[in-house]
Amino acid sequence: MMKGVLDALTVAGLGATVSYPSALRDVPGLAEAFAGMPDTPGGRLVAAQLVTLPTHPAVSPADRRRIVDIVRGVLRAGP
After folding, report:
1. Model's pTM, two decimal places?
2. Class of residue 11 by CB neighbours under 10 A (exposed 0-12, middle 13-18, buried 19+)
3. Quick count: other Cβ atoms within 10 Å of Cβ 21?
4. 2-11 and 61-77 helices cross at what angle (nearest 10)?
5. What is the pLDDT of residues 10-63, one digit of tens each?
6. What is the largest CA-CA distance in the chain?
7. Alpha helical stretches, state H, the chain
8. Which has the closest alpha carbon to 21: 36, 11, 6, 39?
9. Cα separation of 66 and 40, whole Å?
10. pLDDT tens by residue, 7-20
């Protein structure tokens, strides 16, 4: 689903990005901080689904409407 949203927004020139490429415990250099702690499947789920939408001042009301319409369309279409 995330890939569909990213692809559709990219094609539309609206610049969404992946927020986290992986859960923090899976990032090289950070994994050691999680040693001995329980697994974090929720963190992996969030990393796999989270998309950052553009919110900077240059995003116009029309852009925001297009973003909403595109995201809704992808979600309605399903996987």
Report:
1. 0.74
2. exposed
3. 9
4. 140
5. 999 998 888 778 888 888 888 889 888 888 888 888 888 889 999 999 999 999
6. 49
7. 2-11, 41-49, 61-77
8. 6
9. 34
10. 999 999 998 888 77
